Amino acid sequence: MSVLPDLHVHYVQACQNLSQPENPFISRVLQEADKSDEISTKGLTLKLAGNNHLVPVPRVTDDDLGVLVSVLGQAAFVTGLDLAYNILTDAGAKTMATFLQENSTLRYLNLMFNDTGTSGAELIAGALHRNESLVHLRMTGNKIGNQGGMFFASMLKINSTLEKLDLGDCDVGLQCLIATAIALTQNKSLKAINLNRPLLSSQQEETTVHIARMLRSNSSLVELHLSKHEMKNFGVERLCEALYENSSLRYLDLSCNNITCDGVKFLGELLKRNQTLEILDLNANRIEDVGAIHLSEALLTWNRTLQALSIVSNNITGKGLVALAHTMQFNMTLSHIYIWGNKFDRSTCVEFSELIETGRLKLGCTDVAPYKVDGEVFLAELSHGLAKHHYWAPRCAAVASGAANASLEIVAVSEY
After folding, report:
1. Mapped to the 3 state alphabet, what secondary structure does the chain carry?
2. What is any Pfam family matched here (predicted)?
3. C-beta neighbour count of 346 within 10 angstroms
4. Largest Cα–Cα distance of the chain, in whole Å?
């Protein structure tokens, strides 16, 4: 049975019992939580991220975490825990693993950018063999390495509760990616996975081939991030061949790869037949005008499911950008487009200015805004994008979530 909201009182008592000094940051967050009116309706997420504060806060240590979990053990109304950007090591991971094995209410856990290593990853992944409550886990930026990633791949063969797993920037390697792909051919619960920026020594794209093979049989995965995989046109072709047979994937992130206009030709053909893909991120590739025209042709006549497209920094000139602007006049499904970092000419500025002024393209759904100098139209950059809140989140809802969320909230993957 859950203790009523007296988190701060229990925290002070626990610090005294364990002879541990109070962390003023934790105290303040717990005092705010005690005043929350959301506890009885949808549970509570404790936001203890060490970044995103106007005044620096004392970051949560392993010892602080030991006291905190002793308090949360009797607080079933706490369903989310954000511990990003703190200084938790493998010792903290051991504490958290024990907590996950004993706790049955925590649904969201964010450990991104701490100091968890391979042994800590083994402990947390091992705890998830038995945990049946956690839905969303973020390990981003913890240098767990290839071996640490292998423990999570093994966990995916057993766990049937986890819906969203973030292993981006974790220094995982080729073996981990292959093992994860194999595990996802059997896993039926995971809806979203981030595998961004692995450390790959091979140029043969074996990992992409295995991921493509997985997509042929996986029917639960909705969101897939493959940024910085050194993917080339060969890999894109393999993915497209697999996605002809996949009817679940809605969000495909291929940003920061080596895709050219030849690879986008395969994506254009895929968009003509695919009826499920809703977000496509091609940010920081090199598709150029020919690739942009391939996309515009598919979106103009054939595709009516894609909602968001990012082609930021792709060496596209006015010819390709104007083609996409014309497409948006006829394709009313495409609501979000991000184009900054390309080569704008006068016609590009005029076309996108008209889309915005007529209301066809909302400012919250693109990364450019028109302005005039001496009667001539130019485009300025807006800080919008598909991954705007991937590495941080505002403490208050300053923008509409649909305009800035990594996945536009297309799939209901529980964060809280």
Report:
1. CCCCCCHHHHHHHHHHHCCCCCCHHHHHHHHHHHCCCCHHHHCEEEECCCCCCCCCCCCCCHHHHHHHHHHHCCCCCEEEEECCCCCCCHHHHHHHHHHHHHCCCCCEEECCCCCCCHHHHHHHHHHCCCCCCCCEEECCCCCCHHHHHHHHHHHHCCCCCCCEEECCCCCCCHHHHHHHHHHHCCCCCCCEEECCCCCCCCCCCHHHHHHHHHHHHCCCCCEEECCCCCCCHHHHHHHHHHHCCCCCCCEEECCCCCCEHHHHHHHHHHHHHCCCCCEEECCCCECHHHHHHHHHHHHHHHCCCCCEEECCCCCCCHHHHHHHHHHHHHCCCCCEEECCCCCCCHHHHHHHHHHHHCCCCCHHHECEEEEEECCEEEEEECCCCCCCCCCCCCCCCCCCHHHHCCCCCCCCCCCC
2. LRR_6
3. 11
4. 71
Domains of the chain: 81-98+107-381 (3.80.10.10)
- Cβ–Cβ < 8 Å for 204, 227: no
Q: 277 with 307: CB under 8 angstroms?
A: no
Amino acid at 159: N
Task: Give the pLDDT of residue 415.
Answer: 38
Q: How far apart are the first and last CA of the chain?
A: 20
Q: Please name the residue that has the structure tokens 């799939």.
A: 411
Whether this prediction's pTM lies above 0.70 is answered by: yes
Q: Are 85 and 22 in contact (CB under 8 A)?
A: no
Task: Count how many residues are written for the chain.
Answer: 416
Inform me whether the pLDDT recorded for 1 exceeds 90. no
Structure tokens at 306: 């894609």
Measured between alpha carbons, how far is 356 from 360 in angstroms, rounded to an integer?
Answer: 6
